[in-house]
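Page 42, continued from yesterday. The earlier attempt failed because a stray header line got pasted into the input along with the sequence. Redoing it now with the clean sequence only.
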Amino acid sequence: MTELDVLRSDRVLSVVRAETIPDAGDLCHALAAGGIRTVELTFTTPGVLDHLRSCADAVSRAGIVLGVGTVMTADQAREAIDAGARFLVTPGLRPAVADVATSRSVPVFLGALTPTEVAQAVDLGSTAVKIFPAGSMGPKYLSDLHGPYPDVELLPSGGINDGNARSYLDAGALAVCAGTGVVPPAQVAAGNWDEIASRARSFVTALSS
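This time it went through. Structure tokens are written below.
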């Protein structure tokens, strides 16, 4: 399966924003045990490239798709891919990041909000377009965007939890981004993998309820 196939199947991507990650591999396996196989570490985590290098090969063999977000520069994009990232995510339109990703045949999810930005993201080669901050706009905004852009796959991020995630999928989202509700920084720092697996499982269950 390709990276997008896994995301399309599970319909959720876990975004990890934590100051400390004791073992990124264990974290990925905990999320996968709960049904979330697409995991985004971010450049806001100190030493994120070291975390990637430590586990990228092992988690990939286990069917987990590990990528990196908050990618702002071409150098960060190259470093992330070289460290094992299988996809890149940006908070906004970052043409230089898109250039690196497309030249290396790595999926990239460029951040956008307005209809103009969505079109620009598509023109830059975005595999799917991350709509951020989705929570400020609500699910209907996604269905509104699909009016002029019926074939653009949208990935809402920001303010999504197990109480509203299904409504974003019903509005046409490719998948949703799950943040601190699934991976609270304190639980990650403490290595409470059973708790994180349980949170992932609850989130995934809510998607089909």
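Notes: The mean pLDDT is 97.
Reminder to self: strip header lines before submitting.
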